[in-house]
Amino acid sequence: MERFIVYFCIFCFLFTLVLGVYQPHTFRSFGLELVRQYQLYRWRQETSRWPAMESEHFVIKYRKGDEENARLVLQEAERVYRPLGEFFGYFPDKNVPISIYTDRASLNRIFGWGSEESAMGVYWAGILRILSPRVWLRDLSGPERDNAFRERGPVAHEYIHLLVDYKAKGNYPRWLTEGLAQYGEEKIAGVVSFTQGALPLSVSLEELDKRFDDPAWQDYSYGVAKDLVLYLVDRYGSGSVPRLLDALGRGDSLDKAFRETTGAGIDQFLSGYERFAKAV
């Protein structure tokens, strides 16, 4: 038996090595799915003693005493499930796991963050993690609280990250998923968002991707990412979004995916965006 396990491990290693050389996209997708399964295993271990609440498309784990907020999150998730799925052209084939944290420290600890991080929600490797509404809506109750969570909550934003991740099979830049998350939560889910004139792209897309976590650049990075997606949809139509993600999901480069989707490469797209930004 031990010899069989050794041989099996060697086979898996050699198979993965060959796959990485001859089928890099398949290798990346295979590796991503392994990461997701491992993170799901860790999530189940982490929340094994937490109460659970399940709907048709989601399963929520929460801390005892936070049932009302878990129900609010579940209702919001189901509200955005169909319109977002139709827009992005993707519906998960399994119930989406969500966990709710009753304080920021507990949420931040999962990712090794310090107290300076103030995220209300995080998507990572197939799992949505949400800060309990009671942390930031403690002064509201009833319909007023429900409306505030629907208009300002993180569920739609993080769920869009999941849709993009699965549909593009992990093959997408940071600016695209952040721009799509902002566009989708505002235009489709009805989350209230601050709107301004289109921002000029003052750095390369590669540099932009590196600056989302820099406090000095966050407002600009998120703002221009949203504007890029606004221009994409305005110029090429809403159907360009699922087509672009499909192309990326097949392993295309960003430039090739844009050419297949819009007829223009990424450089032409950015030139058009610059004209658009100046005209707004």
Question: Could you characterize what this model shows?
Answer:
The chain is an alpha/beta fold and 280 residues long. The chain is built from 13 helices and five strands. Helix 3 crosses helix 7 and helix 7 crosses helix 8. It starts with a helix and ends with a helix.
Concise structural overview:
This protein is α/β, with parallel strands linked by helices.
Number of strands: 5
Mean pLDDT value: 90
Proportion of strand residues: 5-15%
Helix/strand class: alpha/beta
How many discrete domains? Answer: 3
Strand order of the largest sheet: 1-2-3-5-4
Largest beta-sheet characterization: 5 strands, mixed
Q: Count the DSSP helices.
A: 13
Task: Give the ordered list of helices and strands.
Answer: HHEEHEHEEHHHHHHHHH
From the alpha-carbon coordinates, what is the Rg to the nearest angstrom? 20 Å
Helix content: 55-70%
- What separation lies between the terminal Cα atoms? 69 Å
Low-confidence stretches: 4-19
Tell me, briefly, the overall form.
globular
Question: Can you give keywords for this protein?
Answer:
single chain; 280 residues; alpha/beta; Neutral Protease, domain 2; 3 domains; five-stranded mixed beta sheet; 13 helices
How is the topology of this model organized?
Blueprint: H1 2-22, H2 24-46, E1 52-54, E2 58-61, H3 67-88, E3 96-101, H4 104-110, E4 121-124, E5 127-131, H5 133-136, H6 142-152, H7 155-167, H8 174-187, H9 205-210, H10 218-236, H11 240-249, H12 254-262, H13 266-279
